[in-house]
Amino acid sequence: VEFLYCDLASMKSIRQFVQQFKAKNCPLHVLVNNAGVMLVPERKTEDGFEEHFGLNYLGHFLLTNLLLDTLKQSGTHSHNARIITVSSATHYVGKLHLNDLQSRCSYSPHGAYAQSKLALVLFTYRLQHLLTANGSHVTANVVDPGVVNTELYKHVFWVVKVAKWMTAWLFFKTPEEGASTTIYAAVSPEMEGAGGCYLYNEERTKSADVAYDEELQRRLWTESCKMVGISDKSCRVP
To answer: What is the pTM of this model?
Structure first.
């Protein structure tokens, strides 16, 4: 196992990481987008992005796009390279505010978190459409890990923390259990060649209706390219 440092809240760090990884000339068969913060107070990343949107979504959007060429070169007809992005059931109540993606008008930790998780689902579906249109041997799927007992909840109200401490053993998944669907998406033979799926408890399920809005997917993708400073090659794909 070899580790390379990457701060998903920093566009500079992401670019440096990709440069270091590519210098190793290694194939890339599985990319898991799993970093995240939840319900943090209003604050910005070093690039000026609202933290939920900047770290949870834009960081993964840039990382994935910068690694796409390597993923495409690594996948084959019989063994596709796989991109797995971790979202949340919170995306079901999320609303994408294209005119205010940074939540500047009115900040809500819950709203900002839910929006970032909805953006990840929209991104995955659009990415799979582009991969299929280009005939790439790469699949993209999105995962809901469920309610997992991790440090992600450190910014919730103290009452919720107490309730979590008392009931986690009964209602929360362990980190190992929470990782199972991500691992399933990454290595299961059943998922070979399957993309554009929303997975929960190792089963394909339906995401929020709004996530299937192809026009919204396209608009978010184009805006995301502008925000992270990469060219929108998808303009050439219907």
So the answer is: 0.88
